[in-house]
Amino acid sequence: MSGFYHKHFLKLLDFTPAELNSLLQLAAKLKADKKSGKEEAKLTGKNIALIFEKDSTRTRCSFEVAAYDQGARVTYLGPSGSQIGHKESIKDTARVLGRMYDGIQYRGYGQEIVETLAEYAGVP
Questions:
Q1: Does a structural domain hold residue 77?
Q2: What domain of life (predicted)?
Q3: Which phi and psi (to 5°) does residue 58 adopt?
Q4: CA neighbours within 13 Å on the CB side: how many for 69?
Q5: pLDDT of residue 84 exceeding 60
Q6: Do 79 and 121 belong together in one domain?
Q7: How many separate domains does the chain show?
Q8: What's the domain range around 81?
Q9: What is the DSSP string of 105-116?
Q10: Does one domain contain both 21 and 51?
Q11: pLDDT averaged over the chain?
Q12: Which residue in 44, 43, 48 sits closest to 104, CA to CA?
């Protein structure tokens, strides 16, 4: 799994079939470990920004539960709590968040925004 260290997940086409299979195997292992009580927190002390331009109950819950299970702390930035791309440029927001967080999850309307976040944040 070290091949995924600090790698952005921007679109499926960025991954080979073998890499996608590896990610699916990891997901199955994490799920089985949680169910059996053997889960090891790999993200202890890490901070993750969850940016949502559009509300999504299932996506938000999935990311929050997974992060907490792995020991990370999250900050939720919802549609009404973020000025990304409005009062603050996406590039500036990415740079600032990249200094504060170890990872950024983005759920929004445009692929261009996620690509800009990835380019300027310096974190996956």
A1: yes
A2: Bacteria
A3: -65, -40
A4: 16
A5: yes
A6: yes
A7: 2
A8: 44-124
A9: EEESS-HHHHHH
A10: no
A11: 91
A12: 48
